[in-house]
Amino acid sequence: MSSVRSVSENATPGFLVWRLSMKWRVAVDRAVAPLGLTHAQYSLVASLYGMDRGGQRPSQRQLADHTGLEPLYVSKLARALEAAGVVDRTRDPADPRAVQLTLTKEGLEIARRAIHVVQGLLDELLEPLGGLDGERTKAFSHELATLLDVPLDPLSEKTHSSEKTHSKSEHSEKEQS
Asked: What pLDDT, on the 0 to 100 scale, is given for residue 177?
């Protein structure tokens, strides 16, 4: 552990986020493997479970947007989950190009079990911050959400808004001349 800590002391935040996400991905992969799921499949199944409880029947695209996964990858995962009897894929009656996803009866049971397993794992992984319900964990989650709200390409947005500001000031200078 000391070698990881020494690497972490001088590491950039981006490197630390990457390392943490990889560590947790591996931990979740191992935890849900006995249920026949990978971490990515778990992300879909757990998200579908939550969306279904909220009265939603998402399309593959909506699920991709929700999970942050690429739509093509969600389609591939959904096909594998359908073949395993976990997910039903049906055409959306309102949009024949869209495919809606729902958990099967077996999928609901797998989702419940997987969510329970992962909640326990997260409580264990977050123990140094006070566990899943700890105040430090809540603050950490808030900070992560703040970072997730930053656009994917923040430099282009800054450049774009800088160009707008620059253009406005040029326009003002011309008007004053």
From this structure: 46
